[in-house]
Amino acid sequence: MSEKKKLTTASGIPYVEHENSMTAGPRGPILLQDFILHEKMAHFNRERIPERVVHAKGTGAYGTFRVTKDLSQYTKAKLFNKVGKETRVFVRFSTVGGEKGSADSERDPRGFAVKFYTEEGNWDLVGNNTPVFFIKDPKKFSDFIHTQKRDPRTNTKSPTMMWDFWSLNPESLHQVMTLMSDRGTPFSYRHMHGFGSHTFSFLNSRNERFYVKFHFITQQGIKNFTDAEATEMKGKDPDHAQRDLVQAIDRGDFPKWTLKVQIMPEAEAKTYHINPFDLTKVWPHADYPLMELGVMELNEVPKNYFAHVEQAAFAPAHVVDGIGYSPDKMLQGRLLSYPDAHRYRLGVNYEQLPVNKCPYMVNNYERDGHMRVDDNGGSNPNYFPNSFDNIEPDPAYKQPPQELDSIMADWYDRNAPGEDDHYTQPGNLFRLMTPEEQKNTIHNIIGAMSGIEGPKREQIIQRQLCHWFRADISLGMAIAQGLGVKVDMAAHSMAK
Known about the structure:
Layout: E1 5-6, H1 35-45, E2 58-67, E3 86-95, E4 110-118, E5 121-128, H2 141-148, H3 159-168, H4 173-180, E6 194-195, E7 200-203, E8 209-218, H5 227-236, H6 240-250, E9 256-265, H7 266-269, E10 291-300, H8 305-310, E11 323-324, H9 329-346, E12 391-392, H10 424-432, H11 435-449, H12 457-471, H13 473-482, H14 487-495
Parallel strand pairs: 1-12
Antiparallel strand pairs: 2-3, 2-10, 3-4, 4-5, 6-8, 7-8, 7-11, 8-9, 9-10
């Protein structure tokens, strides 16, 4: 018999447990993070052709990632195993809330997704240009996104919907503070940082686990529009960020980012004073300093936008050996939702498209479905185990079991005591700003909240003012004054 082949996912990532689901204890419930279970069932469910949906507006480019520092004591991932090693990447930037025809300079978070084509499968690091997010439980995601889209009656964007949701969910305040600063309107994709945002994990050669956060630090420097400049650019060139990236690469001005990581030993996560898996919180750099890992350079514009940028599909579920997940609830939700969105939008065989295809080995039993572009496995068996092929799981890729605090399954309040400080970090962020940045942030908040209308206008404003006051008294005072609200009214509302 010929040489044995490793069992892999459609991304080319070797895995072991093809027949047993991950559970909390031998008889416990199945865990959401068992991505192989999702991949097998979801692929099977879509072996008949589904419809396709359009993706948000974005731009992208190919490039390389080069290792500059040895962090092999923390991770056994092969793409990091040698200083100087280069890995091909594809990066897609995007606006988040707008449609495909929206302006690049809208006040909005920016997507920052990187696909690493490694020899052990594709690793997708899917984040934003901010280290935090508006919510920390995936069950709230669809509600939040609805408020960023269009009012069901008027079919227009609604400040009332947005601020109503934010005022009812104070966990959003940290991200809202960032969004309302000038970082909510980046000058271009080249001049912003990128973050994995979620907490992930590293596993080293001894199978020791470390929790990690990823930071892409722009070497071009941070550059933002003011609110007035962003508004002007909407009318002047709504595709400004797209054009800026293409023109920079075409003239040889290749943008670069330094990839840095924060690393937390697994044991420290249990006692750290901040929940390290809360997506609305950052890890202070004083406790966990940034450690350099490598440099990413973008140097190739795709020849066809649709084939590469529009059809690119990223999923945080796609991690490689030496990189893993964490108990981050939002990450856990995205492990399922992102691949599922791609199967709906592009078809169940989306990972066979050139931009998504693993350039190395791919061996599995997925067959049929919409737009199968290879030989569909030929005459090989489409089931496992079987007596005919030589595909076997490689136990070397088995991850160690992850200790859980408890196997008690329940619906826990995400904002229970100890998890309900939504004000310290946003307040610290505001106080870290320069006077000019504070002035611009206050101006942007007043402008955004001035759009709240309807019979609940005063109630929504008062509720949101409570959050601003709790974050920083001077901030709350300035916003109240700008909105024409008497300070004693806001204080009265706070006391309720």
